FAD/NAD(P)-binding domain-containing protein (Tremella mesenterica), 546 residues
Amino acid sequence: MTDEEVKMYDVVLVGAGFGSIYALNRLRKLNLKCIILEKAPRSGGVWYWNCYPGARVDTPEPVYQIPDPELWEGFDFRERYPGRDELCRYFDHVDSKLNFSKDTWYGSKVIGAKWDNEACFWEVKYVRQDKEGGLTEGKVKGRWFIAGIGLSGEIYKPKIEGMELFKGQLVHSAEWPQTGIDLKDKRVAVIGTGASGVQIIQEIAPITSQLTVYQRTPNFCLPMVQRSLSPSENQKKKLDGTYQTAFNKTLTTFAGFPYDFLPQSLFSESFEKREELFQSLMEEGGFGLWLNNYHDVYSDEKANEIVYEFWRDTIRKRIQDENLKEKLAPMKQPHPFGTKRPSLEINYYECFNLPHVDLIDLNENPILKFTQEGIITKDDEKKFDLIILATGFNALTKGMENMNVKNHQDKSISDHWSEGVKTTLGMMVNGFPNLFMIYGPQAPSAFGNGPISASIQGDWLGKVFEMVKEKRIVKWETQKEEEEKWTLECREVWGKSLFPNAKSWYQGSNIPGKRVEALNYIGGIPRYIEALDKSLEDGLKAWDIK
Ligand code: N01
Protein backbone atom coordinates (compact mmCIF):
# COMPACT_ATOMS: atom_id res chain seq x y z
CA MET A 1 0.00 0.00 0.00
CA THR A 2 1.51 3.38 -0.95
CA ASP A 3 1.19 6.36 1.36
CA GLU A 4 -1.35 7.93 -1.01
CA GLU A 5 -3.53 4.84 -0.73
CA VAL A 6 -3.66 4.97 3.07
CA LYS A 7 -7.12 6.23 3.93
CA MET A 8 -7.42 9.59 5.66
CA TYR A 9 -10.14 10.13 8.25
CA ASP A 10 -11.00 13.16 10.31
CA VAL A 11 -10.88 11.08 13.46
CA VAL A 12 -9.45 7.63 14.19
CA LEU A 13 -10.84 6.15 17.40
CA VAL A 14 -9.66 3.02 19.19
CA GLY A 15 -11.95 0.58 21.01
CA ALA A 16 -15.64 -0.14 20.43
CA GLY A 17 -16.84 0.22 24.01
CA PHE A 18 -18.90 2.94 25.66
CA GLY A 19 -16.18 5.60 25.20
CA SER A 20 -15.65 5.51 21.44
CA ILE A 21 -19.26 4.67 20.58
CA TYR A 22 -20.55 7.72 22.44
CA ALA A 23 -17.87 9.97 20.93
CA LEU A 24 -18.43 8.59 17.42
CA ASN A 25 -22.13 9.40 17.64
CA ARG A 26 -21.31 12.93 18.79
CA LEU A 27 -18.69 13.49 16.06
CA ARG A 28 -20.84 12.07 13.29
CA LYS A 29 -23.34 14.85 14.05
CA LEU A 30 -20.59 17.29 13.02
CA ASN A 31 -20.18 15.40 9.75
CA LEU A 32 -16.73 14.25 10.68
CA LYS A 33 -15.47 11.16 8.91
CA CYS A 34 -14.59 8.71 11.67
CA ILE A 35 -13.39 5.15 12.01
CA ILE A 36 -13.11 2.93 15.09
CA LEU A 37 -10.39 0.28 15.24
CA GLU A 38 -11.37 -2.55 17.56
CA LYS A 39 -9.24 -5.53 18.48
CA ALA A 40 -12.19 -7.80 19.30
CA PRO A 41 -14.49 -9.38 16.73
CA ARG A 42 -17.45 -7.43 18.16
CA SER A 43 -18.34 -4.37 20.23
CA GLY A 44 -18.66 -4.12 24.02
CA GLY A 45 -15.07 -3.51 25.12
CA VAL A 46 -14.49 -5.13 28.53
CA TRP A 47 -17.92 -6.72 28.32
CA TYR A 48 -16.85 -8.72 25.29
CA TRP A 49 -13.63 -10.01 26.85
CA ASN A 50 -14.83 -10.60 30.41
CA CYS A 51 -17.12 -13.52 29.74
CA TYR A 52 -16.15 -15.40 32.91
CA PRO A 53 -18.99 -17.02 34.88
CA GLY A 54 -20.88 -14.51 36.97
CA ALA A 55 -19.62 -11.38 35.18
CA ARG A 56 -22.11 -8.60 35.73
CA VAL A 57 -22.04 -4.88 36.24
CA ASP A 58 -21.94 -3.30 39.70
CA THR A 59 -23.82 -0.14 38.67
CA PRO A 60 -27.62 -0.31 38.90
CA GLU A 61 -30.02 0.30 36.06
CA PRO A 62 -31.18 2.60 34.64
CA VAL A 63 -27.91 4.53 34.80
CA TYR A 64 -25.55 1.93 33.34
CA GLN A 65 -26.39 2.78 29.75
CA ILE A 66 -25.84 5.64 27.34
CA PRO A 67 -27.69 8.71 28.62
CA ASP A 68 -29.63 9.27 25.40
CA PRO A 69 -33.44 8.92 25.44
CA GLU A 70 -33.44 7.75 21.81
CA LEU A 71 -31.34 4.76 22.80
CA TRP A 72 -33.55 3.88 25.77
CA GLU A 73 -36.31 2.96 23.39
CA GLY A 74 -36.38 -0.63 22.21
CA PHE A 75 -34.28 -2.15 25.00
CA ASP A 76 -35.27 -3.01 28.55
CA PHE A 77 -32.73 -4.40 30.97
CA ARG A 78 -34.16 -7.40 32.75
CA GLU A 79 -32.11 -7.15 35.92
CA ARG A 80 -31.17 -4.34 38.24
CA TYR A 81 -27.50 -5.33 37.79
CA PRO A 82 -27.32 -6.77 34.27
CA GLY A 83 -25.09 -9.69 33.44
CA ARG A 84 -22.41 -9.76 30.75
CA ASP A 85 -24.54 -11.42 28.05
CA GLU A 86 -27.31 -8.91 28.51
CA LEU A 87 -24.77 -6.09 28.25
CA CYS A 88 -23.50 -7.55 24.97
CA ARG A 89 -27.10 -7.61 23.72
CA TYR A 90 -27.40 -3.98 24.78
CA PHE A 91 -24.42 -3.10 22.56
CA ASP A 92 -26.18 -4.89 19.67
CA HIS A 93 -29.26 -2.81 20.38
CA VAL A 94 -27.21 0.42 20.32
CA ASP A 95 -25.69 -0.75 17.05
CA SER A 96 -29.15 -1.37 15.60
CA LYS A 97 -29.94 2.28 16.38
CA LEU A 98 -26.63 3.95 15.52
CA ASN A 99 -25.05 1.47 13.14
CA PHE A 100 -21.64 2.26 14.62
CA SER A 101 -20.41 -1.03 13.14
CA LYS A 102 -20.60 0.59 9.72
CA ASP A 103 -17.63 2.68 10.83
CA THR A 104 -15.85 0.04 12.88
CA TRP A 105 -13.10 -2.30 11.77
CA TYR A 106 -13.32 -5.28 14.07
CA GLY A 107 -10.39 -7.61 14.66
CA SER A 108 -8.00 -4.69 14.18
CA LYS A 109 -5.49 -4.22 16.96
CA VAL A 110 -3.62 -0.92 17.03
CA ILE A 111 0.13 -1.49 17.29
CA GLY A 112 1.46 2.01 16.73
CA ALA A 113 0.58 5.62 16.06
CA LYS A 114 2.92 8.33 14.82
CA TRP A 115 2.28 12.07 14.61
CA ASP A 116 3.33 13.90 11.43
CA ASN A 117 3.97 17.44 12.61
CA GLU A 118 4.32 18.92 9.12
CA ALA A 119 1.19 17.53 7.55
CA CYS A 120 -0.65 17.38 10.92
CA PHE A 121 -2.09 13.90 11.04
CA TRP A 122 -1.70 10.67 12.98
CA GLU A 123 -0.66 7.57 11.09
CA VAL A 124 -2.13 4.63 12.96
CA LYS A 125 -0.82 1.12 12.39
CA TYR A 126 -2.92 -1.92 13.12
CA VAL A 127 -2.70 -5.64 12.72
CA ARG A 128 -5.71 -7.63 11.62
CA GLN A 129 -6.39 -11.32 11.78
CA ASP A 130 -7.84 -12.74 8.57
CA LYS A 131 -10.29 -15.65 8.36
CA GLU A 132 -7.48 -18.17 7.96
CA GLY A 133 -5.77 -16.87 11.10
CA GLY A 134 -3.05 -15.02 9.21
CA LEU A 135 -2.03 -11.53 10.31
CA THR A 136 -1.94 -8.52 8.03
CA GLU A 137 -0.67 -5.10 8.95
CA GLY A 138 -2.46 -1.98 7.81
CA LYS A 139 -2.35 1.77 8.25
CA VAL A 140 -4.90 4.49 8.47
CA LYS A 141 -4.49 8.24 8.84
CA GLY A 142 -6.46 10.51 11.11
CA ARG A 143 -6.32 14.27 11.58
CA TRP A 144 -7.26 13.46 15.17
CA PHE A 145 -6.72 10.37 17.29
CA ILE A 146 -8.95 9.31 20.18
CA ALA A 147 -8.02 6.38 22.42
CA GLY A 148 -11.21 5.00 23.93
CA ILE A 149 -9.46 1.93 25.26
CA GLY A 150 -10.99 1.63 28.72
CA LEU A 151 -9.28 1.26 32.06
CA SER A 152 -8.07 -2.30 32.02
CA GLY A 153 -4.90 -1.71 30.02
CA GLU A 154 -3.02 -4.97 30.20
CA ILE A 155 -3.88 -8.25 31.84
CA TYR A 156 -1.72 -8.91 34.91
CA LYS A 157 -0.45 -12.42 35.57
CA PRO A 158 1.93 -12.75 38.51
CA LYS A 159 5.16 -14.58 37.86
CA ILE A 160 5.05 -17.71 39.99
CA GLU A 161 7.66 -20.43 39.84
CA GLY A 162 6.61 -23.43 37.76
CA MET A 163 3.50 -21.82 36.29
CA GLU A 164 4.35 -23.14 32.85
CA LEU A 165 4.52 -26.71 34.17
CA PHE A 166 0.87 -26.93 35.20
CA LYS A 167 -0.82 -29.59 33.04
CA GLY A 168 -4.41 -28.59 33.79
CA GLN A 169 -6.08 -25.47 32.43
CA LEU A 170 -4.73 -22.09 33.51
CA VAL A 171 -6.80 -19.06 32.61
CA HIS A 172 -6.92 -15.36 33.47
CA SER A 173 -10.41 -14.03 34.21
CA ALA A 174 -10.24 -11.60 31.28
CA GLU A 175 -9.10 -14.32 28.87
CA TRP A 176 -11.96 -16.69 29.64
CA PRO A 177 -12.72 -18.65 26.46
CA GLN A 178 -15.80 -17.34 24.66
CA THR A 179 -16.92 -20.95 24.30
CA GLY A 180 -16.86 -21.36 28.10
CA ILE A 181 -15.27 -23.95 30.38
CA ASP A 182 -17.09 -26.97 31.75
CA LEU A 183 -16.70 -26.62 35.52
CA LYS A 184 -18.89 -29.47 36.63
CA ASP A 185 -17.11 -31.68 39.14
CA LYS A 186 -13.81 -29.91 38.53
CA ARG A 187 -11.19 -29.14 41.17
CA VAL A 188 -10.66 -25.42 40.84
CA ALA A 189 -8.34 -22.79 42.32
CA VAL A 190 -9.07 -19.06 42.18
CA ILE A 191 -6.17 -16.71 42.87
CA GLY A 192 -7.35 -13.20 43.68
CA THR A 193 -10.44 -11.81 45.37
CA GLY A 194 -11.00 -8.50 43.57
CA ALA A 195 -14.19 -7.76 41.61
CA SER A 196 -13.49 -10.55 39.09
CA GLY A 197 -12.52 -13.14 41.70
CA VAL A 198 -15.57 -12.52 43.88
CA GLN A 199 -17.96 -12.82 40.95
CA ILE A 200 -16.35 -16.03 39.74
CA ILE A 201 -16.18 -17.62 43.18
CA GLN A 202 -19.83 -17.09 44.06
CA GLU A 203 -20.96 -18.32 40.64
CA ILE A 204 -18.85 -21.47 40.37
CA ALA A 205 -18.79 -22.64 43.99
CA PRO A 206 -21.99 -24.72 43.66
CA ILE A 207 -20.78 -26.38 40.43
CA THR A 208 -17.24 -27.41 41.29
CA SER A 209 -16.25 -30.50 43.26
CA GLN A 210 -13.51 -28.62 45.09
CA LEU A 211 -12.85 -24.89 45.18
CA THR A 212 -9.82 -23.33 46.82
CA VAL A 213 -9.61 -19.57 47.07
CA TYR A 214 -6.13 -18.08 47.39
CA GLN A 215 -6.65 -14.73 49.13
CA ARG A 216 -4.08 -12.05 49.81
CA THR A 217 -6.44 -9.27 50.88
CA PRO A 218 -10.09 -9.66 51.83
CA ASN A 219 -12.59 -7.80 49.70
CA PHE A 220 -15.06 -5.72 51.74
CA CYS A 221 -18.00 -6.89 49.64
CA LEU A 222 -21.39 -5.25 49.85
CA PRO A 223 -24.70 -6.99 49.20
CA MET A 224 -25.86 -6.45 45.64
CA VAL A 225 -29.58 -7.10 46.28
CA GLN A 226 -30.26 -8.17 42.75
CA ARG A 227 -33.79 -8.15 41.41
CA SER A 228 -35.62 -8.59 38.10
CA LEU A 229 -36.98 -5.66 36.17
CA SER A 230 -40.07 -6.02 34.03
CA PRO A 231 -40.44 -4.25 30.67
CA SER A 232 -43.58 -2.52 31.96
CA GLU A 233 -41.69 -1.18 35.00
CA ASN A 234 -38.92 0.14 32.74
CA GLN A 235 -41.41 1.59 30.30
CA LYS A 236 -43.23 3.42 33.06
CA LYS A 237 -39.96 4.87 34.36
CA LYS A 238 -39.01 6.08 30.89
CA LEU A 239 -42.37 7.82 30.51
CA ASP A 240 -42.80 9.28 33.99
CA GLY A 241 -39.38 10.95 33.96
CA THR A 242 -37.68 8.59 36.46
CA TYR A 243 -34.97 7.72 33.92
CA GLN A 244 -34.25 11.34 33.02
CA THR A 245 -34.20 12.39 36.69
CA ALA A 246 -31.74 9.61 37.52
CA PHE A 247 -29.45 10.57 34.64
CA ASN A 248 -29.60 14.26 35.55
CA LYS A 249 -28.63 13.35 39.09
CA THR A 250 -25.57 11.40 37.92
CA LEU A 251 -23.96 14.61 36.72
CA THR A 252 -24.21 16.12 40.19
CA THR A 253 -22.73 13.32 42.29
CA PHE A 254 -19.16 12.31 43.16
CA ALA A 255 -19.10 9.07 41.17
CA GLY A 256 -21.86 9.50 38.59
CA PHE A 257 -24.33 7.39 40.55
CA PRO A 258 -27.83 8.55 41.38
CA TYR A 259 -26.74 9.00 45.02
CA ASP A 260 -23.93 10.82 46.77
CA PHE A 261 -22.00 11.37 49.98
CA LEU A 262 -24.07 12.98 52.72
CA PRO A 263 -23.28 16.58 53.62
CA GLN A 264 -23.11 15.87 57.36
CA SER A 265 -20.13 14.48 59.26
CA LEU A 266 -20.43 11.00 60.71
CA PHE A 267 -19.65 12.47 64.11
CA SER A 268 -22.60 14.86 63.96
CA GLU A 269 -25.01 11.94 64.28
CA SER A 270 -25.84 9.71 67.22
CA PHE A 271 -24.71 6.08 67.31
CA GLU A 272 -28.32 4.95 66.72
CA LYS A 273 -28.82 7.22 63.74
CA ARG A 274 -25.58 6.06 62.15
CA GLU A 275 -26.45 2.40 62.64
CA GLU A 276 -29.87 3.04 61.15
CA LEU A 277 -28.30 4.61 58.08
CA PHE A 278 -25.69 1.86 57.62
CA GLN A 279 -28.35 -0.79 58.02
CA SER A 280 -30.64 0.79 55.44
CA LEU A 281 -27.75 1.20 52.97
CA MET A 282 -26.86 -2.49 53.31
CA GLU A 283 -30.50 -3.52 52.90
CA GLU A 284 -30.98 -1.33 49.84
CA GLY A 285 -27.96 -3.05 48.26
CA GLY A 286 -25.29 -1.65 45.94
CA PHE A 287 -22.50 0.77 46.70
CA GLY A 288 -24.51 2.79 49.24
CA LEU A 289 -22.30 2.03 52.24
CA TRP A 290 -19.34 3.04 50.06
CA LEU A 291 -20.57 6.12 48.21
CA ASN A 292 -23.83 7.20 49.87
CA ASN A 293 -22.27 7.50 53.31
CA TYR A 294 -21.09 10.42 55.48
CA HIS A 295 -18.71 12.71 53.61
CA ASP A 296 -15.81 12.25 56.06
CA VAL A 297 -15.51 8.47 55.72
CA TYR A 298 -12.53 8.81 53.31
CA SER A 299 -10.79 11.68 55.07
CA ASP A 300 -11.15 10.73 58.73
CA GLU A 301 -9.63 7.48 59.93
CA LYS A 302 -11.93 7.14 62.91
CA ALA A 303 -15.06 7.71 60.82
CA ASN A 304 -13.77 5.13 58.36
CA GLU A 305 -13.14 2.62 61.12
CA ILE A 306 -16.70 3.02 62.45
CA VAL A 307 -18.14 2.15 59.04
CA TYR A 308 -15.77 -0.79 58.77
CA GLU A 309 -16.83 -2.16 62.15
CA PHE A 310 -20.46 -2.08 61.11
CA TRP A 311 -19.64 -3.84 57.83
CA ARG A 312 -17.45 -6.42 59.57
CA ASP A 313 -19.99 -7.32 62.24
CA THR A 314 -22.78 -7.63 59.67
CA ILE A 315 -20.77 -9.86 57.35
CA ARG A 316 -19.41 -12.10 60.13
CA LYS A 317 -22.96 -13.21 60.94
CA ARG A 318 -23.09 -14.93 57.55
CA ILE A 319 -19.92 -16.96 58.02
CA GLN A 320 -20.05 -20.11 60.15
CA ASP A 321 -16.40 -20.89 60.78
CA GLU A 322 -14.61 -18.69 63.36
CA ASN A 323 -11.30 -18.84 61.51
CA LEU A 324 -12.95 -17.88 58.21
CA LYS A 325 -14.74 -14.96 59.88
CA GLU A 326 -11.31 -13.55 60.70
CA LYS A 327 -9.98 -14.20 57.19
CA LEU A 328 -12.92 -12.70 55.30
CA ALA A 329 -13.89 -9.90 57.70
CA PRO A 330 -10.94 -9.37 60.07
CA MET A 331 -11.34 -7.62 63.41
CA LYS A 332 -8.76 -5.04 62.33
CA GLN A 333 -9.14 -3.65 58.84
CA PRO A 334 -6.09 -4.25 56.61
CA HIS A 335 -6.70 -0.96 54.75
CA PRO A 336 -9.29 1.77 55.22
CA PHE A 337 -12.78 0.70 54.22
CA GLY A 338 -13.59 1.59 50.61
CA THR A 339 -10.08 2.61 49.60
CA LYS A 340 -9.90 -0.58 47.54
CA ARG A 341 -12.97 -1.06 45.39
CA PRO A 342 -15.61 -3.11 47.23
CA SER A 343 -17.42 -5.71 45.17
CA LEU A 344 -21.11 -6.34 45.08
CA GLU A 345 -21.91 -9.89 46.11
CA ILE A 346 -24.97 -12.10 46.02
CA ASN A 347 -23.97 -15.21 48.01
CA TYR A 348 -20.20 -14.78 48.30
CA TYR A 349 -19.90 -15.32 52.04
CA GLU A 350 -22.26 -18.32 52.12
CA CYS A 351 -20.00 -20.06 49.59
CA PHE A 352 -17.38 -20.42 52.29
CA ASN A 353 -19.86 -22.38 54.43
CA LEU A 354 -19.90 -25.13 51.77
CA PRO A 355 -17.83 -28.19 52.73
CA HIS A 356 -15.91 -28.34 49.44
CA VAL A 357 -14.86 -24.64 49.49
CA ASP A 358 -11.76 -23.56 51.37
CA LEU A 359 -9.63 -20.45 51.64
CA ILE A 360 -5.88 -20.12 51.86
CA ASP A 361 -4.58 -16.92 53.38
CA LEU A 362 -1.49 -16.10 51.34
CA ASN A 363 -0.10 -13.86 54.04
CA GLU A 364 0.34 -16.86 56.34
CA ASN A 365 0.69 -19.54 53.76
CA PRO A 366 2.20 -18.09 50.57
CA ILE A 367 2.37 -19.85 47.22
CA LEU A 368 5.79 -21.42 46.73
CA LYS A 369 5.30 -22.82 43.26
CA PHE A 370 3.06 -24.44 40.70
CA THR A 371 3.58 -28.06 39.83
CA GLN A 372 2.28 -30.18 36.96
CA GLU A 373 -0.75 -31.01 39.09
CA GLY A 374 -1.46 -27.97 41.17
CA ILE A 375 -0.13 -25.48 43.69
CA ILE A 376 2.29 -25.84 46.58
CA THR A 377 2.08 -23.31 49.39
CA LYS A 378 4.24 -23.11 52.51
CA ASP A 379 1.97 -25.48 54.46
CA ASP A 380 -0.04 -27.24 51.84
CA GLU A 381 -0.19 -28.94 48.44
CA LYS A 382 -3.33 -29.14 46.30
CA LYS A 383 -4.22 -30.68 42.95
CA PHE A 384 -6.42 -28.91 40.44
CA ASP A 385 -8.03 -29.34 37.03
CA LEU A 386 -8.33 -25.58 36.54
CA ILE A 387 -6.49 -22.60 38.01
CA ILE A 388 -8.10 -19.20 37.54
CA LEU A 389 -5.95 -16.09 37.80
CA ALA A 390 -8.29 -13.32 38.91
CA THR A 391 -5.25 -11.15 39.45
CA GLY A 392 -6.37 -7.98 37.73
CA PHE A 393 -4.73 -5.56 35.36
CA ASN A 394 -1.91 -3.13 34.86
CA ALA A 395 -4.60 -0.51 34.60
CA LEU A 396 -5.00 3.01 33.24
CA THR A 397 -1.49 3.64 31.91
CA LYS A 398 -0.41 0.41 30.26
CA GLY A 399 -3.06 0.41 27.54
CA MET A 400 -1.82 3.75 26.23
CA GLU A 401 1.80 2.74 26.59
CA ASN A 402 1.28 -0.53 24.74
CA MET A 403 -0.19 1.23 21.71
CA ASN A 404 3.24 2.64 21.00
CA VAL A 405 2.03 6.19 20.40
CA LYS A 406 4.89 8.45 19.29
CA ASN A 407 5.16 12.12 18.50
CA HIS A 408 7.24 13.66 15.72
CA GLN A 409 10.32 13.67 17.93
CA ASP A 410 9.93 9.94 18.36
CA LYS A 411 8.99 10.41 21.99
CA SER A 412 6.52 7.87 23.32
CA ILE A 413 3.81 8.28 25.94
CA SER A 414 5.91 6.01 28.20
CA ASP A 415 8.86 8.41 27.81
CA HIS A 416 6.60 11.31 28.68
CA TRP A 417 5.32 9.50 31.78
CA SER A 418 8.70 8.14 32.86
CA GLU A 419 8.83 10.54 35.83
CA GLY A 420 5.13 10.13 36.61
CA VAL A 421 1.84 10.36 34.76
CA LYS A 422 0.97 13.82 33.47
CA THR A 423 -2.19 14.76 31.60
CA THR A 424 -4.52 17.67 31.17
CA LEU A 425 -7.96 16.72 32.48
CA GLY A 426 -7.09 13.05 32.03
CA MET A 427 -7.68 13.53 28.32
CA MET A 428 -4.63 15.17 26.74
CA VAL A 429 -0.89 14.88 26.87
CA ASN A 430 1.57 17.71 26.26
CA GLY A 431 3.81 17.03 23.26
CA PHE A 432 1.16 14.85 21.62
CA PRO A 433 -1.03 17.13 19.52
CA ASN A 434 -4.51 16.15 18.34
CA LEU A 435 -4.61 13.19 20.72
CA PHE A 436 -7.40 12.60 23.25
CA MET A 437 -8.04 9.83 25.75
CA ILE A 438 -11.38 8.62 27.04
CA TYR A 439 -11.20 6.78 30.41
CA GLY A 440 -7.56 7.86 30.62
CA PRO A 441 -5.45 8.21 33.78
CA GLN A 442 -6.16 11.25 35.98
CA ALA A 443 -9.82 11.25 34.96
CA PRO A 444 -12.62 10.30 37.37
CA SER A 445 -13.68 7.27 35.27
CA ALA A 446 -12.31 4.52 37.54
CA PHE A 447 -14.29 5.82 40.48
CA GLY A 448 -17.66 5.73 39.01
CA ASN A 449 -20.15 4.96 36.44
CA GLY A 450 -18.48 4.10 33.11
CA PRO A 451 -21.13 5.23 30.60
CA ILE A 452 -21.63 8.49 32.51
CA SER A 453 -17.90 9.30 32.53
CA ALA A 454 -17.71 8.40 28.85
CA SER A 455 -20.63 10.67 28.01
CA ILE A 456 -19.16 13.59 29.97
CA GLN A 457 -15.88 13.24 28.10
CA GLY A 458 -17.70 12.59 24.81
CA ASP A 459 -19.83 15.72 25.20
CA TRP A 460 -16.71 17.76 25.90
CA LEU A 461 -15.06 16.30 22.79
CA GLY A 462 -18.16 17.27 20.83
CA LYS A 463 -17.73 20.87 21.97
CA VAL A 464 -14.01 20.80 21.20
CA PHE A 465 -14.69 19.55 17.67
CA GLU A 466 -17.36 22.21 17.15
CA MET A 467 -14.59 24.74 17.79
CA VAL A 468 -12.16 22.82 15.63
CA LYS A 469 -14.59 23.01 12.74
CA GLU A 470 -15.65 26.58 13.31
CA LYS A 471 -12.12 27.93 13.64
CA ARG A 472 -10.59 25.48 11.15
CA ILE A 473 -8.06 24.30 13.70
CA VAL A 474 -5.59 21.77 12.33
CA LYS A 475 -3.36 21.36 15.35
CA TRP A 476 -4.23 21.56 19.00
CA GLU A 477 -1.89 20.74 21.81
CA THR A 478 -2.34 21.05 25.54
CA GLN A 479 0.32 23.18 27.18
CA LYS A 480 2.87 22.07 29.76
CA GLU A 481 1.50 24.46 32.41
CA GLU A 482 -2.03 23.11 31.97
CA GLU A 483 -0.76 19.57 32.36
CA GLU A 484 1.24 20.45 35.47
CA LYS A 485 -1.76 22.22 37.00
CA TRP A 486 -4.08 19.27 36.48
CA THR A 487 -1.53 16.72 37.66
CA LEU A 488 -0.99 18.74 40.82
CA GLU A 489 -4.73 18.95 41.45
CA CYS A 490 -5.04 15.17 41.04
CA ARG A 491 -2.20 14.57 43.47
CA GLU A 492 -3.49 17.06 46.01
CA VAL A 493 -7.01 15.67 46.30
CA TRP A 494 -5.64 12.15 46.38
CA GLY A 495 -3.11 13.07 49.08
CA LYS A 496 -5.78 14.56 51.34
CA SER A 497 -7.81 11.36 51.32
CA LEU A 498 -7.31 7.92 52.87
CA PHE A 499 -6.98 6.30 49.41
CA PRO A 500 -3.15 6.30 49.38
CA ASN A 501 -3.32 3.92 52.40
CA ALA A 502 -4.43 0.93 50.30
CA LYS A 503 -2.35 -1.04 47.83
CA SER A 504 -4.69 -0.81 44.87
CA TRP A 505 -4.76 -0.44 41.11
CA TYR A 506 -6.19 3.03 41.71
CA GLN A 507 -2.61 4.10 42.34
CA GLY A 508 -0.66 1.42 40.50
CA SER A 509 0.47 -0.39 43.64
CA ASN A 510 -1.04 -3.71 42.51
CA ILE A 511 1.78 -4.14 39.97
CA PRO A 512 5.26 -4.97 41.25
CA GLY A 513 7.67 -2.21 40.26
CA LYS A 514 5.02 0.19 38.96
CA ARG A 515 5.27 3.78 40.14
CA VAL A 516 2.81 4.46 42.95
CA GLU A 517 0.92 7.67 42.24
CA ALA A 518 -2.54 9.16 41.94
CA LEU A 519 -3.82 7.61 38.72
CA ASN A 520 -7.36 8.82 39.22
CA TYR A 521 -9.01 12.13 39.75
CA ILE A 522 -11.06 11.96 42.95
CA GLY A 523 -12.36 15.51 43.02
CA GLY A 524 -15.74 14.17 41.90
CA ILE A 525 -17.79 14.43 38.73
CA PRO A 526 -19.21 17.95 39.33
CA ARG A 527 -15.77 19.46 39.86
CA TYR A 528 -14.50 17.56 36.80
CA ILE A 529 -17.31 18.89 34.62
CA GLU A 530 -16.54 22.37 35.92
CA ALA A 531 -12.87 21.96 34.94
CA LEU A 532 -13.81 20.69 31.47
CA ASP A 533 -16.22 23.61 30.96
CA LYS A 534 -13.64 26.07 32.19
CA SER A 535 -11.14 24.82 29.63
CA LEU A 536 -13.63 25.70 26.92
CA GLU A 537 -14.69 28.99 28.51
CA ASP A 538 -11.07 30.04 28.49
CA GLY A 539 -11.57 30.06 24.76
CA LEU A 540 -8.59 28.46 23.22
CA LYS A 541 -6.04 30.13 25.45
CA ALA A 542 -4.93 26.86 26.94
CA TRP A 543 -4.29 25.44 23.55
CA ASP A 544 -1.71 25.88 20.89
CA ILE A 545 -3.44 26.73 17.64
CA LYS A 546 -1.64 26.52 14.38
O1 N01 B 1 -8.63 -7.05 39.68
P1 N01 B 1 -8.13 -6.47 41.10
P2 N01 B 1 -10.11 -7.42 39.22
N1 N01 B 1 -0.79 -13.41 44.40
O2 N01 B 1 -6.81 -5.84 40.84
C1 N01 B 1 -4.90 -10.50 43.81
C2 N01 B 1 -13.27 -3.69 37.32
N2 N01 B 1 -14.19 -4.84 37.32
O3 N01 B 1 -10.01 -8.00 37.85
O4 N01 B 1 -5.76 -7.21 46.85
C3 N01 B 1 -2.01 -13.50 44.93
O5 N01 B 1 -9.16 -5.66 41.74
C4 N01 B 1 -5.13 -9.17 44.47
O6 N01 B 1 -4.72 -9.22 45.82
P3 N01 B 1 -4.40 -7.85 46.64
C5 N01 B 1 -13.35 -2.98 38.66
O7 N01 B 1 -13.15 -1.62 38.49
C6 N01 B 1 -15.50 -4.56 37.44
O8 N01 B 1 -10.80 -8.20 40.22
O9 N01 B 1 -3.56 -7.02 45.70
N3 N01 B 1 -3.00 -12.66 44.69
C7 N01 B 1 -6.64 -9.03 44.26
O10 N01 B 1 -7.35 -9.76 45.20
C8 N01 B 1 -12.23 -3.64 39.41
O11 N01 B 1 -11.78 -2.91 40.53
C9 N01 B 1 -16.40 -5.58 37.51
O12 N01 B 1 -3.73 -8.25 47.84
C10 N01 B 1 -2.75 -11.68 43.85
C11 N01 B 1 -6.83 -9.65 42.88
O13 N01 B 1 -5.73 -10.50 42.66
C12 N01 B 1 -11.20 -3.81 38.33
O14 N01 B 1 -11.94 -4.15 37.17
C13 N01 B 1 -15.97 -6.89 37.45
C14 N01 B 1 -1.49 -11.51 43.23
C15 N01 B 1 -6.87 -8.63 41.78
O15 N01 B 1 -7.95 -7.78 41.97
C16 N01 B 1 -10.17 -4.89 38.58
O16 N01 B 1 -10.82 -6.02 39.14
C17 N01 B 1 -14.62 -7.15 37.31
C18 N01 B 1 -0.49 -12.44 43.54
N4 N01 B 1 0.74 -12.34 43.03
C19 N01 B 1 -13.73 -6.11 37.25
N5 N01 B 1 -1.56 -10.44 42.43
C20 N01 B 1 -17.82 -5.24 37.71
O17 N01 B 1 -18.37 -4.25 37.30
C21 N01 B 1 -2.80 -9.94 42.54
N6 N01 B 1 -3.52 -10.68 43.40
C22 N01 B 1 -18.57 -6.11 38.51
Notes: The two ends are 30 Å apart (CA to CA). The chain has a mean pLDDT of 96. The first strand starts at residue 8 and ends at 14.
